[in-house]
Amino acid sequence: MNTGDDVTLAGLRVCPDLDSILYALAGVNDAERGWGRADEAERAAEEMTAWGVGWPWFTLGDRDLGACITRSHWLAEGVGLAEVVRRLASRWDLGVALLPMSEQPIETHVHTAEQGRMHFQEWWVRHRAGLRAERFELDGIGAATPAPGVLAAIADADAVLVAPSNPVVSIGPILAVPGIREALVATAAPVVGLSPIVGGRVVRGMADACLEAIGVDTDAAAVAQHYGAELLDGWLVDTADAGAAGRLTAEGIPTIARPLLFTSVEETAAIARDALALAQR
Amino acid sequence: MNTGDDVTLAGLRVCPDLDSILYALAGVNDAERGWGRADEAERAAEEMTAWGVGWPWFTLGDRDLGACITRSHWLAEGVGLAEVVRRLASRWDLGVALLPMSEQPIETHVHTAEQGRMHFQEWWVRHRAGLRAERFELDGIGAATPAPGVLAAIADADAVLVAPSNPVVSIGPILAVPGIREALVATAAPVVGLSPIVGGRVVRGMADACLEAIGVDTDAAAVAQHYGAELLDGWLVDTADAGAAGRLTAEGIPTIARPLLFTSVEETAAIARDALALAQR
């Protein structure tokens, strides 16, 4: 899991991607709002804002803060992030192991044309990616190592699926941890990705603003080429992008087209099944 | 203000006495429950408890946690506790300056007959002072100094009122900070105390269990004698204890009796006026 959008706020370690995945798998997420916990309120954040502490545009719900306090406490005790995630997840029967990409703090910063350098969350949440991103910097990435268990999970996998997440700020940081991309290239497991771009548009979020900053077209084929034939053993695009399938396959990335827009767990599972089927080919 | 019942919980610095006084003066306290903020919920604490972090019998409300996060953040930045209190209080127009007794962490521990040594809060909140206290220890008191402004406030005061708070674990720690008792003895300002004991019973809380541990009777005169004629220039007892007034006055503690049981702000103000009048004599 990506930790590149983590941030320390009012002394608390906030891990938006980790927690979003955990909450969703546990079924306690706020599906309507798209982030945080269900049955939420913001009493603590209201107080912090009144005292000018934290980011008023990045309010965390009270349940969410309970997780941040717990995590920060364990980290301060010297517990590694992988073990922290394991403990947080152990409350629920998830059926999967969640691994952070690294235990070292890595924080994405954005250089904007209008206001210079800022934390990714400031650009993303406060400015809704509305300032022009010139480039991204992953502070701490050079000294980072994969978290315990990550390389073994890649080496021992039957298949690796690359989720249709933001290729630049979600998948990008994971691949940038020294050793992880190399492990994905080296593993015997097939690596199959799902396009986050459908018909030249991002399905969700503001990935186009990120892709533009790194000079990659907002296009299903361009994202596959960005990951590279060396990494990918397969690629799923939407039927709207079926035209790219033949070309990518010829370039060494076997590609199939099928509907990728999903709203239900059943549809998502069907897509995952097709991705695994492509991996077995 | 007493900081002797402070505790660090899940990495957050909790200051129950400081916050109770702040909330009450700001009018945002939960008067019915007797502690914490009004309009409260415990979403964050529920999460922490589910992860086994913190004390399940010492749940903090979400608004309360907002204050604890804010304080802990400022303390971690190197801000002194006196300045932290000033900032927390600056949100409201209190009309008074609040000063912690010391900026050094001081934590009261209780030696119990049944279960040995424990933090004061565990004895007080978890066991409702039901274990027999053999003695109290103020960890950190030896190295503590009065917080900035405390000695000047005592020296420059027109009068000093000693509140009818717990003589052992609320007033006691303040007097135990090296230099504070000496300053109260030395100041030109009259020092007048109010008895927390009415008719041989504690008005509120479980001060009797604390007094017993230090060998002081639960008695209005005994508490005055415990503070001592050197410290006190006056003492207010309830009419139920009028019999002690002559004796204490003869011992060098001018004492008056008047009703001390109050439920309204007006009654409290009238008592304070009588205390100040005694100070002026």
UniProtKB/TrEMBL annotation, chains A, B:
One of its GO terms (molecular function) is LPPG:FO 2-phospho-L-lactate transferase activity. Keywords: Magnesium, Transferase. Pfam families: CofD (PF01933). The keyword Transferase applies. The keyword Transferase applies. InterPro entries: CofD, CofD-like_dom_sf, FbiA/CofD. HAMAP family: CofD. This is 2-phospho-L-lactate transferase. It comes from Arenivirga flava. The lineage of its organism: Bacteria, Bacillati, Actinomycetota, Actinomycetes, Micrococcales.
